[in-house]
Amino acid sequence: MKTSELKSFLDEKVCLYNNSKFIESDPIQIPHQFSLKEDIEIAGFLSASIAWGNRKMIISNASKMMEIMGNTPYDFVMDHKQHHLENLENFVHRTFNSNDFQFFIKGLKHIYTHHNGLEAVFSKNQEVANLQNSISEFKKIFFEIPHPSRTEKHISDPMNNSAAKRINMFLRWMVREDNAKVDFGIWKSISPAQLSCPLDVHSGNVARKLGLLHRKQNDAKAVAELDASLRNLDPTDPVKYDFALFGLGVFEKF
């Protein structure tokens, strides 16, 4: 398939899947319950952080997270006391347990209290080409307060060659803006051109079949290769093709 033909094919798939119906079956529906910027950020960050495994289970457990926080995530993060964290003790999503959840609340409070919020942290360390350094620096800041060592595994680091799928997905939600109002576009200090595709089994397999990716492992090097291919198709909004790759893999079994 020629580049022009591939672009046309994928653009059609973006139009097919980048619409309001996508929200109904995706974890992005959780932050869509809120209107306050900080609520959207925190709901999005927590939902993305547990976004692996069965999608229905992800959505169910992310909803439980919001319910535990009284459906006011920012207020809960900022105003919680130690006894409020006891309400988190029965929460579990695969290997993300109540101890992890409790620290994530503390870590988020630290970010908003001492670092001016999530957007400020991610935008401070951005590079021209991508946000991989931003993600790595975010992890350092997030864990600069006392924490269980086991919890570190729930924030990936591209500098350790991780694809950082969940963080890249969260950044897509916050930074990219589309006419269908699926992604929020509430972070104006970062350009959509810097975003990386959330690479997973589905998007990776489709990308390889289409010749967009040749590396076999789904790691940071594969993300960089896929980024280059997608930016060749659309340098200003490359991760719109995440909808095409995901839709082709999950819905069409491409």
Explain how this protein is built:
The chain has 254 residues and is mainly α. The chain is 54% helix and 2% strand. The protein has 13 helices and two strands; from the N terminus they run ααααααββααααααα. The protein has helices at residues 3-17, 20-24, 37-49, 55-68, 73-79, 82-85, 98-114, 118-124, 132-142, 165-175, 201-209, 220-233, 241-251, and strands at 92-93, 96-97. A two-stranded antiparallel ribbon has the order 1-2. β1 (92-93) and β2 (96-97) form a beta hairpin. It is globular and about 60 Å long. The mean pLDDT is 96.
Helix-strand blueprint:
Layout: H1 3-17, H2 20-24, H3 37-49, H4 55-68, H5 73-79, H6 82-85, E1 92-93, E2 96-97, H7 98-114, H8 118-124, H9 132-142, H10 165-175, H11 201-209, H12 220-233, H13 241-251
Antiparallel strand pairs: 1-2
Helix pairs in contact: 1-13, 3-10, 8-9, 11-13
Summarize this entry quickly:
Helices cover 54% and strands 2% of the residues. It has 13 helices and two strands.
Question: How would you describe this structure in keywords?
Answer:
254 residues; 2 strands; globular; 13 helices; single chain; 2% strand
Radius of gyration: 18 Å
Describe the oligomeric state of these chains in a short phrase: single chain
Number of E-type strands: 2
Strand proportion: under 5%
Stretches with pLDDT under 50, minimum 5 residues:
none
Count of separate DSSP helical elements: 13
Give the fraction of residues assigned to helices: 40-55%
The largest beta-sheet arranges its strands as 1-2
What's the order of the H and E elements? Answer: HHHHHHEEHHHHHHH
The largest sheet, given as strand count, sense and whether it forms a barrel, is: 2 strands, antiparallel
